[in-house]
């Protein structure tokens, strides 16, 4: 994967991929270029992980994760241009949601509109105490269109999602934690290291096992419990013949840390 994107900064920390939204002068607002950059990055991960085992997405700076769609860019857009841009955002969020490895959002500030949707599309969220969330689209005469009505409702429940989306009211990191959108709230100075800490723990585990377990959870929740159980067993059986499974058992018996190779 390439790393020379215009609107995002991509760096590697061993097996961890850190993605920083990088338009700080406009609160990391989501413009067409950022949509294309995120789409390209996450679609490339579906083809070749290049040994990445966990990904983190955060915002550059200490004020905003992502303030949502860039309304200055959208000002004066024709209907045709608006729809064309939104097709990019639709493809972007599908690529994010389809990320084969765990995707953690480290929300360092305002996550409004599309920013909240990117966080909700991640596998789980750590947030700074100063972070604030909102889906404000209805205040602009539109509605969430990058997974917000689906992912937020699945995280916080239908009734809470309706309250938040239909009112456009902002909510705090602590409220997001209590409602189920955020897993953990930490001090701003500790956010990235705390997120990297759980990412490192995941990256030390069997990468094939982590990816299969992620798929079993996510896909299984879209099925009946019996179909989900069948999917889980199929995912499990794909791990039985792997080198990693044999290495994990051998390392346990030899009382050492396993060396997983993703094979």
Short note summarizing the structure:
With 263 residues, the protein is α/β, with parallel strands linked by helices. It contains eleven helices and ten strands.
Please explain how this structure is put together.
By secondary structure, the chain is of the alpha/beta class. It folds into two domains: 196 residues, 2-enoyl-CoA Hydratase, Chain A, domain 1 (Alpha-Beta Complex); 49 residues, Orthogonal Bundle (Lyase 2-enoyl-coa Hydratase, Chain  A, domain 2), CATH 1.10.12. The protein is built from eleven helices and ten strands. The strands form two sheets. Strands 1-2-3-5-7-10 form a six-stranded mixed sheet, sandwiched between helices. Strands 4-6-8-9 form a four-stranded mixed sheet. Strand 1 and strand 2 form a beta hairpin.
Keywords:
263 residues; 2-enoyl-CoA Hydratase, Chain A, domain 1; 16% strand; Lyase 2-enoyl-coa Hydratase, Chain  A, domain 2; four-stranded mixed beta sheet; six-stranded mixed beta sheet; alpha/beta
Strand order of the largest sheet: 1-2-3-5-7-10
Distance between the termini: 21 Å
Query: Which class best fits the helix and strand makeup?
Result: alpha/beta
What is the name of the CATH architecture of the largest domain? Alpha-Beta Complex
- Main sheet? 6 strands, mixed
User: Cα-atom Rg, whole angstroms?
Assistant: 19 Å
Proportion of β residues?
15-25%
Poorly predicted runs are: none
Strand tally is 10
């Amino acid at each position: 994967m390439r790393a020379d994107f215009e609107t995002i900064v991509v760096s590697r920390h061993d097996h961890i991929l850190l993605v920083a939204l990088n338009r700080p002068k406009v609160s990391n607002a989501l413009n067409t270029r950022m949509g294309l950059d995120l789409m390209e990055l996450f679609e490339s991960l579906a083809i070749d992980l290049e040994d990445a085992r966990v990904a983190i997405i955060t915002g550059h700076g200490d004020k905003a994760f992502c303030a949502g769609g860039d309304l200055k860019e959208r000002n004066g857009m024709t209907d045709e241009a608006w729809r064309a841009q939104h097709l990019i955002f639709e493809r972007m969020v599908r690529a994010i949601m389809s990320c084969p490895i765990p995707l953690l959002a480290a929300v360092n500030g305002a996550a409004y509109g599309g920013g909240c949707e990117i966080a909700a599309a991640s596998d789980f969220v750590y947030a700074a105490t100063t972070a604030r969330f909102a889906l404000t689209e209805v205040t602009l005469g539109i509605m969430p269109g990058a997974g917000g009505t689906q992912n937020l409702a699945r995280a916080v429940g239908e009734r809470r999602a309706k309250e938040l989306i239909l009112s456009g009211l902002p909510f705090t990191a602590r409220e997001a934690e209590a409602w189920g959108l955020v897993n953990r709230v930490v001090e701003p100075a500790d956010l990235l290291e705390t997120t990297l800490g759980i990412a490192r723990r995941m990256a030390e585990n069997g990468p094939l096992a982590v990816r299969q377990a992620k798929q079993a959870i996510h896909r299984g929740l879209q099925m009946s419990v019996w179909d989900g159980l069948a999917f889980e067993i199929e995912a499990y059986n794909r791990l039985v013949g792997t080198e990693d499974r044999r290495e994990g058992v051998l390392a346990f018996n030899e009382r050492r840390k396993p060396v997983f190779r993703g094979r």
